[in-house]
Design brief:
Layout: E1 2-10, E2 13-17, E3 23-28, H1 30-34, E4 44-47, E5 54-59, E6 65-66, E7 71-72, E8 76-82, H2 90-102, E9 107-112, H3 119-135, E10 139-141, H4 146-154, E11 158-162, H5 169-176, H6 186-192, E12 204-206, E13 211-215, H7 237-240, H8 260-267, H9 272-292
Parallel strand pairs: 3-5, 8-9, 8-11, 9-10, 11-13
Antiparallel strand pairs: 1-2, 1-4, 2-3, 4-5, 6-7, 12-13
The structure holds guanosine-5'-diphosphate (GDP), magnesium ion and zinc ion.
The site of zinc ion (ZN) has 7 residues, from helix 8.
Length: about 290
């Protein structure tokens, strides 16, 4: 018996990377099904390491997990966001950031396709980048010297790259690790043919940084949050810093007087764009609640 990490799941079987770099295949014990436990890619497991038809005996406690993509124990998720084609919208990026905050997965941001901006547009976009850096998210862009910076983010960490189809995930990962040979533009082609592609999540090794990465299919823009609307402000780190400073307890930062968040927006210490996303999400969630109650 050894302890390893699940790097791929294939209809009931799991590929597990063991401590010595070997990869073995195993099945989940029947007990897991009874207790409704399902092994996830990223799980640390105890497994039979003698052959390729052994069992997974134990799933170690997870530090976090995502439902879409189904993956556990992430050190970081990098949200790949195009600045053009499609055009950047803060709403979609903020939605993904909130989902990661709620799942307790540290986030990072990669802005792709910077080369499609004019000099002037690029100068304007610098303020968007600065806003997210100020919040504390690591931000990388497609036209800077890659290797050094990515080394800091990826080294010894399990990182998933998420973002809309066409954002540039596979392109980036091929640049970071030329041996991967991921198909570029693959999903969008399939979509235009009207095909339904559900690609599997797998962890790919990047020996250079002694780490694993996952190139995952797009994040759906119709995703709904599954936490109470009153938790929403906690998932904006820059709001969290002002906790308890609003005049009213239970302030939701929409219409209340003496709201520290709204004041910070006026002062420019919280970006208007982020507050705008907060209001949009708040209203969507609050309305939904009334409708279905
Ligand atoms: N101009 C430009 N095009 C890019 C860049 N990154 C990706 N693309 C293009 O965007 C399209 C989608 O890229 P892909 O990596 O397949 O996106 P994915 O769906 O997120 O994996 C492809 O046609 C890429 O060539 C970039 O930095 N600059
Ligand atoms: Mg891709
Ligand atoms: Zn408030």
């Amino acid at each position: 018996m050894k302890t390893g990490r699940i790097i791929r799941s294939l209809s009931g079987y799991y590929d597990i990377a063991g401590p010595d770099g070997e990869v073995l295949r195993a099945r989940a014990r029947g007990e897991f099904r009874k207790s409704k436990q399902k092994p996830l890619v990223g799980d640390e497991v105890d497994f039979d390491s003698q052959s390729n038809d052994g069992f997974i005996w134990k799933i170690h406690p997870r530090k976090n997990s995502l439902v879409r993509p189904p993956i556990a124990n992430l050190d970081r998720a990098v949200i790949v966001t195009a600045v053009r084609e499609p055009n950047f919208t803060a709403n979609l990026l903020d939605r993904q950031l909130v989902a990661l905050e709620a799942a307790k997965v540290p986030a990072g941001i990669y802005f792709s396709k910077m080369d499609l901006l004019t000099e002037e547009e690029r100068a304007d976009f610098a303020s968007v980048i600065a806003d997210y850096q100020k919040i504390g998210y690591p931000v990388l862009v497609s036209d800077q010297d890659e290797s050094q910076q990515w080394g800091n983010i990826l080294k010894d960490q399990v990182t998933v790259f998420m973002g809309q189809t066409g954002a540039g995930k596979s392109t980036l990962l091929n640049q970071l690790c030329p041996g991967l040979g991921l198909e570029v533009g693959e999903v969008s082609k399939a979509l235009s043919r009207g095909k339904h592609t559900t690609r599997q999540v797998a962890l790919l090794p990047i020996p250079k940084w002694q780490t694993w990465i996952a190139d995952t299919p797009g994040f759906s823009s119709y995703e709904v949050f599954d936490f109470p609307v009153t938790d929403l402000d906690q998932y904006f780190p820059e709001f969290r810093a002002l906790r308890g400073q609003c005049r009213f307890r239970g302030c939701v930062h929409i219409n209340e007087p003496g709201c520290a968040i709204k004041e910070a927006v006026t002062l420019g210490t919280i970006s208007a764009s982020r507050y705008n996303s907060y209001k949009t999400f708040y209203n969507l969630m609050a309305n939904k609640k009334i409708k279905y109650r």
